[in-house]
Amino acid sequence: MATYDALGVSYARTRRPDPRIAAQIDAAVGDARDVVNVGAGTGSYEPVRTVLAVEPSRVMIRQRPAGAAPAVQAVAEHLPLGDNAADAVMALLTVHHWTDLTAGIRELRRVARRRVVILTWDQRVFRERFWLVRDYLAHAAAFDDSRAVPIDQLIDLLGGGRTEPVHVPYDCVDGFGAAYWRRPHAYLDPQVRAGISMLAQTGDDALAPGLARLADDLAAGRWHTRYADLLTLDSIDVGYRLVVADH
Question: Is 0.85 surpassed by the pTM of this model?
Answer without folding.
Answer: yes
